[in-house]
Amino acid sequence: MLATVVHVVGSAYRRPGARMLILPDGRRLGTISGGCLEGDVARKASRWTSNTGKALRVFDNTTEDAAWEFGLGCNGVISVLLERLENGQVGAMLDFLDARQAAKQPAVVATVIRCANEHDCEVGDRLLCDAEGSVGGALDGSDLETDLSPAIQAAFRDRTHRLVNLSSMEIFVEWVGAPQRLVIVGSGHDVMHLVSIANLMGWSVTVADRPSAYVQPNRFPGAAKVIALPASGGIDALEIDTETAVVVMTHNFPQDRLLLPHLLRKRPRYLGLLGPKSRAENLFLENGEDLRQWDVHAPIELDIGSDHPQTVALSIVSEI
Fold this sequence. Notes:
By secondary structure, this protein is of the alpha/beta class. The chain folds into 3 domains: 82 residues, no CATH class; 89 residues, no CATH class; 139 residues, Rossmann fold, CATH 3.40.50.720. Helix content is 30%, strand content 26%. The protein contains 8 helices and 15 strands. It starts with a strand and ends with a helix.
C-alpha cells in the first residue's frame, strides 16, 4: 500500500509529496506525519481501499476529537491518497520516478485526487512528465493534458507542488526533484561527517582530492564516487554543472589556488570555501578575481555556533 500526502491546510509535520509504503508484513517505510497518523493508516488502509483499490482520506486535526484520537498537535487538515500496489498506475509511477532519479533528472506527476462522475477519469489517474513533456500515465493524450500544461510548466519552473482545480476536479501536481549532487573537494576527517549527513538526506555525493591514503572509498561509505584528482587541478571527472553544490575542504591553500579557476568556470549552484573570508579573498586575488563579483559562500556554513566536525557538517548541509 502506498500513502501519499496530496494536500495540507494549516500546520502539518509533513508536506504534500510525503510518502509512506506499507509492506505486506505491516512494516512501514517513510512517514506522512510526525508519527501520529501512520499507525491508524496502516491498520485501516486495506479496509478503506477494499472497493476500488484506492481512497482519499482527510484527517482534520483542528478538532478536539482528532487531537484525542490521534494525539495530534499540528492543527492542520491533511489529505492522504491511499493506493494498493497492484494498481498498475502506481507501479508505472514508481518505475518512472526511479528512472528519473537514476538519471538525476527532475519529474512532475499530476494525480487526480477528486473527480465528479461526469468526467472521464478516476481518482489515481496520472500524467507523468519529464522536462521535455508528458511521457505516460492514464491522462497522457487526454484533454486534461492540455489543461494541466501551465501548472506542470510552473511546477518545473518554481520547483514546487500545487493543487489544481478544474471544473469539479482536483489534481495534485507534484514536483519531484533530482537528488542533490554534492561534490566535496577534500578527504580529511571532517569530510567523513559531511558525507554521512548528506547521505542521510539522499544526496548523491562525490569526494575528490589529490591522491593519498585518505582518498579511499572505504573511508566514505555514503559517497557514490571517490576520485583522485590530477596534480594539475583539473576537475573534468567530477561532472559539475549548474545544479551541483561544491564544497572545498582541502585545508591546502596552494591546492585551492589551482582548483579555483576550474570551479568558477563550471558555475555550480553552490560554491563554499572552508576558512575565513580573508583566505577566500586572497585565493581570488591570486587568480585575478574579485570575490565580491561571485556568489561564493566564504566562510562556509550557517552560523549555528559550530565547533566540531559533526555540527560543521550539519551547518554546511543546512546552508546548501
